């Protein structure tokens, strides 16, 4: 099954993928829970970010793993969706700056309706 970064209704498809299927995607995937603890992390994101799964899984996303995203553009959007109980599916242009030279990316912020355990941050590095 091919899944693209811009595909419609991507939340449920990402949420149902096995870890090995996540590793086959051509974009980065970070899945985290309501406390922002990283629970899923695919191989491409690990390789391109230079952060091993052992270093990322079980850690708070916005304070330990990617503090450069702890702002109104990323973290606050997830917080607002959780507060209002709304789903979230937004794509933004962003520049990653933590632990690396600046890298232009597109981020897709995904949060399902209430009752869904994980939220997802998809990372598409621009060529």
Task: Give the second-level CATH assignment, the architecture.
Answer: 2-Layer Sandwich
Name the CATH superfamily classification.
PAS domain
Uncertain parts: none
Order of helices and strands: HHEEHHHHEEE
Largest β sheet strand count, sense and barrel closure? 5 strands, antiparallel
- Cα(first) to Cα(last) distance is 24 Å
Protein described:
With 127 residues, the protein is of the alpha+beta class. The protein has one domain: PAS domain (Beta-Lactamase), CATH 3.30.450.20. The chain is built from 6 helices and 5 strands; from the N terminus they run ααββααααβββ. The chain has helices spanning 10-16, 19-23, 43-49, 53-56, 61-65, 75-84; strands spanning 28-32, 38-41, 88-96, 103-111, 119-125. A 5-stranded antiparallel β-sheet has the order 2-1-5-4-3. A hairpin with a 7-residue loop joins strand 4 (103-111) and strand 5 (119-125). The model has no long low-confidence stretch (mean pLDDT 92).
């Amino acid at each position: 099954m091919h899944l693209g970064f811009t595909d419609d209704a991507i939340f449920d498809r990402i949420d149902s993928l096995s870890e090995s299927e996540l590793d086959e995607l051509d974009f980065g995937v970070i899945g985290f829970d309501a406390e922002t603890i990283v629970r899923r992390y695919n191989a491409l994101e690990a390789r391109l970010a230079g952060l091993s799964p052992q270093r990322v899984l079980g850690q708070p996303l916005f304070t330990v793993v990617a503090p450069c995203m702890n702002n109104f553009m990323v973290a606050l959007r997830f917080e607002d969706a959780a507060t209002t109980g709304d789903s979230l599916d937004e794509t933004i242009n962003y520049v990653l700056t933590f632990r690396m030279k600046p890298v232009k990316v597109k981020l897709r912020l995904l949060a399902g309706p209430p009752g869904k355990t994980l939220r997802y941050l998809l990372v598409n590095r621009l060529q």
